[in-house]
Amino acid sequence: MKILRAEIFHTPRNPFDSETNLVALPDGGLAIENGRIAACGDYSDVRKAHPDAAVRDLRGGFLLPGFIDTHIHFPQVRIVGGLGHSLLDWLEMLTLPEEARLADVAYASTIAHEFVANLAAHGTTTALVFGAHFTGAVAALFEAARRAGLRIISGLVLADRLLRPELHQSPDAAFEDSEALINRFQSYAVTPRFALSTSEPMLEVCRALLKKYPKLHFTTHINENVREVQQVAQLFPWALDYLSVYERFELAGRRSVFAHNVQVTDSELYRLKAHNSSIAHCPASNAALGSGIFPMRRHLEARVRFALGTDIGGGTGFGMMKESLQSYLLQRVAPQPVTLSPGQMLCLATRAGAEALAMEDDIGDFSAGKAADYVYVRPPGQSVLEGVIKNCEEPSRRLAAILTLAGQESIRETAVFGEPVYEA
Question: What predicted TM-score, i.e. pTM, was given to this entire model?
Answer without folding.
Answer: 0.98
